[in-house]
Design goal:
The protein has 13 helices and 18 strands. The chain is of the alpha/beta class. The protein has 3 domains: 298 residues, FAD/NAD(P)-binding domain (3-Layer(bba) Sandwich), CATH 3.50.50.60; 104 residues, Succinate dehydrogenase/fumarate reductase flavoprotein, catalytic domain (Flavocytochrome C3, Chain A, domain 1, Alpha-Beta Complex), CATH 3.90.700; 83 residues, Fumarate reductase/succinate dehydrogenase flavoprotein-like, C-terminal domain (Methane Monooxygenase Hydroxylase, Chain G, domain 1), CATH 1.20.58.
C-alpha cells in the first residue's frame, strides 16, 4: 500500500479549504500543502451558494453592531458572542482579500458594490455576483491556487477515516484529552485502493450533510463525511439538531437532487410569499413578513402547506421589473423557464428543503478540535457563530474568517510537529466484493425517508423515537456490510449518512425545548434553560 507524506492535508475544496491553503501558501511557501476532493475540485457546497456573502461595507448606513445584533437575533440566543464579534469584525478584510484574489461582485451604475438585502438583516450588506456568488468565489480561489507551486489538489479521493492512536492498537475514548491525529486513510476512486496520507496537521473542510434528507439544496457530495469521521474518532460534535431548511427551493413535480434553490435574495429584491391562490400569509407569523429569519419562514410555509393540504406555496415576483429581475437572477430566471414557468407571468412554486447545518465539529476561535493536530473549518463545524439558526449569507463569511485564523495558527505551531512513524496499512483482509449494490442504494433511500418524515422541520418525541429505532437497524446492517465487503464510495457515504442521521436525531431528542431551527410539538416553548447537545 502506498504511503504519502505532506505538511498540511486539507480535506475539501470549497471556500474553507481553498482559503486555508492560499493563506498558508502566502505565509509559508516552503510548506507542502495537499487538498483533497472526492469529486472534481469544483464540485463543492460553495459552488452552489447563490445569494452572497454578508459583510459590513457601507459604513454610512451600516456598522458592525447592527450585523452582530442581526446574527444574534437569528441565532435565538445561542450564538457565542466572542465568535460573532470575531467574524463580523474580521469579515470585511477577508472579503477584500477575496476581491484582491480575483472574485467579482456586482456593482451599480455608480460603480459601487450593489449591496443586497436578505432575511434577518437590518441593512443592505450582501455582496453578490448575480445569483452565482458561490461559483464565482470558487472560480477565483481555484485560479489563485494555480499560482502556488506548493499546493497540490488531489481529485477523486474519498476520505475514509482520520488516523489516531486507535489505529495503533490503543483504546481511545471521547473523554480523553490527548487524542492525536496523524493523517487520513484515502480511497483512490480511480483504482479503489486505500492509501495512507500522513501529515503534520490536518484540516477537515468537508461541508454539510444535506443528503440525509430527500429534499436538499446541497449537491450529492454533501454526505457529512468530516463530521462522521470526527465522531468515529471520538471527537466532539455538537448542536446537530439545528438543521436549516431553506424556505424556498423550487418545487419540481418531477423531482430533482439537489433541489434547485430560489435564493433568499429574491425576497430581498421584493418577491412576496403567497398561498397557491395568491393570498399573503407571512403577516400571521412575523412582522418582517417574507424577510423574517429562515427558521420562521420555513415553519410558516410548512404550517400553511399542512393546513391547506398542498404540496407547495408560491413566490410572487410578477410585480417586479422584468429586466432587472433577469439581470439579477439569470440562473433562477432561466431555470424557471426551463420547467415551463415564466416568473414574470406566473408565481414560482416553492417548498422548504434542507440547506445548511449549524452544528457540527466543535472548534474554538482558531479552528482547533479536541483532537490534537486536527482542525476543522466551514459548514462541517460548530463555531458558535450561528447558534440555533444561521443568518443568511454568514456561511461563506465564516469559512473565510476561520480559514485565515487556522492558517495563522498553523504557521505558529507546525515547526514543532513531526510526522508519526509506524502507521499501519489499511487492513482489508477477509473482505469480498459486494454482491448486491441494491443493499446500499435501498438503505440510502430508507435513511432519507426516515429523516424527512420523522426529523424534519417539525419534530416530536414519538417521531424521534421511531427514527432512532429504524436508524439503529440500518446502522447494524451497514456495519456488517462494511466489515465484510471491500470499500466503495457508495458504502462509505451510506455509513456517514447514517452517522449524521443518528447525530441529528440524538441531538434533537436531548433538547427539551423549541429553539431556532429545532421545533418540537412536545416542548413548543423556549425554556429558560438549555440542555447541552455535545455528543
Amino acid at each position: 500500500m502506498s504511503v504519502y507524506k505532506t505538511d498540511v492535508l486539507i480535506i475539501g475544496t470549497g471556500i474553507a479549504g481553498l482559503s486555508t491553503a492560499i493563506q498558508l501558501a502566502i505565509r509559508r511557501p516552503d510548506l507542502k500543502i495537499s487538498l483533497v476532493s472526492k469529486s472534481v475540485k469544483e464540485e463543492t457546497n460553495t459552488r452552489y451558494a447563490q445569494g452572497g456573502i454578508a459583510a459590513v461595507w457601507d459604513l454610512g448606513e451600516d456598522d458592525s453592531s447592527k450585523h452582530i445584533a442581526d446574527t444574534k437575533d437569528a441565532g435565538d440566543d445561542l450564538c457565542d458572542p466572542q465568535i460573532v464579534d470575531i467574524v463580523v469584525n474580521e469579515g470585511p478584510e477577508r472579503v477584500r482579500e477575496l476581491i484582491e484574489w480575483g472574485t467579482r461582485f456586482d456593482k451599480d451604475q455608480k460603480n459601487e458594490y450593489d449591496l443586497a438585502m436578505e432575511g434577518g438583516h437590518s441593512e443592505k450588506r450582501i455582496l453578490h455576483y448575480r445569483d452565482l456568488t458561490g461559483a464565482e468565489i470558487e472560480r477565483a480561489l481555484l485560479e489563485k491556487c494555480v499560482g502556488y507551486k506548493n499546493i497540490t489538489i488531489l481529485e477523486h479521493y474519498y476520505a475514509i477515516d482520520v488516523i489516531t492512536q486507535h489505529h495503533l492498537g490503543y483504546t481511545v475514548t471521547r473523554v480523553m484529552n490527548d487524542i492525536q491525529c496523524y493523517g487520513v486513510y484515502l480511497l483512490n476512486l480511480q483504482n479503489l485502493m486505500v492509501e495512507t496520507h500522513l501529515a503534520k496537521l490536518i484540516v477537515l473542510a468537508t461541508g454539510g450533510a444535506g443528503q440525509i434528507y430527500k429534499a436538499t439544496t446541497n449537491p450529492t457530495i454533501s454526505t457529512g463525511d468530516g463530521i462522521a469521521m470526527m465522531y468515529r474518532a471520538k471527537g466532539h460534535v455538537e448542536n446537530m439538531e439545528f438543521v436549516q431548511f431553506h424556505p424556498t427551493s423550487l418545487f419540481n413535480p418531477k423531482g430533482e437532487n439537489p433541489s434547485f434553490l430560489i435564493s433568499e435574495a429574491v425576497r430581498g429584491f421584493g418577491g412576496i410569499l403567497k398561498t397557491r391562490d395568491g393570498k399573503e400569509f407571512m403577516h400571521k407569523y412575523d412582522d418582517r413578513l417574507s424577510l423574517a429569519p429562515r427558521d420562521i419562514v420555513a415553519r410558516a410555509i410548512d404550517s400553511e402547506m399542512k393546513a391547506r393540504g398542498e404540496d407547495y406555496v408560491s413566490l410572487d415576483c410578477r410585480h417586479l421589473d422584468p429586466q432587472a429581475f433577469a439581470a439579477h437572477f439569470p440562473t433562477i430566471y432561466h431555470k424557471c423557464l426551463s420547467i415551463g414557468i415564466d416568473p414574470m407571468q406566473e408565481m414560482i412554486p416553492v417548498v422548504p428543503a434542507c440547506h445548511y447545518f449549524c452544528g457540527g465539529i466543535k472548534v474554538d476561535a482558531n479552528g482547533h478540535t479536541n483532537i490534537q493536530n486536527l482542525y476543522a473549518c466551514g459548514e462541517s463545524t460548530s463555531t458558535g457563530l450561528h447558534g440555533a439558526n444561521r443568518l443568511a449569507s454568514n456561511s461563506l463569511l465564516e469559512g473565510a474568517v476561520f480559514a485565515h485564523r487556522i492558517a495563522q495558527d498553523i504557521v505558529s505551531t507546525i515547526d514543532r510537529i513531526e510526522l508519526k512513524p509506524g502507521i499501519p496499512e489499511w487492513d482489508a483482509r477477509g473482505t469480498t466484493d459486494p454482491k448486491e449494490m441494491v443493499l446500499i442504494t435501498q438503505s440510502i433511500k430508507e435513511l432519507k425517508e426516515i429523516m424527512s418524515y420523522y426529523v424534519g422541520i417539525v419534530r416530536s418525541n414519538v417521531r424521534l423515537k421511531r427514527a432512532m429505532d429504524r436508524l439503529q437497524l440500518l446502522y447494524m446492517e451497514t456495519e456488517e456490510l462494511y466489515n465484510n465487503t471491500t470499500l466503495s464510495p457508495q458504502l462509505c457515504e451510506l455509513r456517514n449518512l447514517i452517522t449524521n442521521g443518528y447525530l441529528v436525531t440524538r441531538s434533537a431528542s436531548i433538547r427539551k425545548e423549541s429553539r431556532g431551527l429545532h421545533f418540537t410539538t412536545d416542548f413548543p416553548d423556549k425554556h429558560a434553560f438549555t440542555q447541552g447537545t455535545l455528543l
